[in-house]
Specification:
single chain, about 120 residues, mainly alpha
Length: about 120
């Protein structure tokens, strides 16, 4: 019989930093994809007006700000809210719903990795 079970180590030198990097990279990639998606959506989507463009730019700015604040524990919850807002922006254009679902899945995976590594 062995003694009390030791917590499983991740093998990472600095697990906190690795997880923060994953969260920041995910949010940064999301912001980049949102900004790059504006023109193709306008060309293909037809009715993609100033309100929708403003919403996409605002969501991208929030994603970048959250990426910078990912050290704060509340930023992870705010990132989850951001995914919901992106899916809600699907009311402005269907392609934003698709992007919202994709990034919600990616964000869910990042949260899973955070939970597994940090416990």
């Amino acid at each position: 019989m062995s003694g009390p079970e030791q917590p499983r180590r991740s093998g990472l030198r600095d697990p906190q930093r690795a997880v923060r990097g994953l969260g920041a990279a995910t949010l940064t990639l999301e912001a980049l994809v949102l900004l790059l998606a504006i023109q193709p959506i306008r060309v293909v989507g037809g009715d993609f007006g100033g309100t929708a463009i403003g919403a996409v730019v605002a969501l991208a700015v929030v994603a970048v700000v959250l990426a910078g604040l990912i050290r704060r524990s509340w930023a992870w919850n705010a990132g989850t809210v951001l995914q919901g807002l992106l899916m809600l922006s699907g009311l402005l254009h269907w392609s934003l719903l698709v992007l919202g679902v994709i990034f919600a899945l990616v964000w869910g995976y990042a949260l899973h990795v955070r939970r597994v590594i940090l416990g």
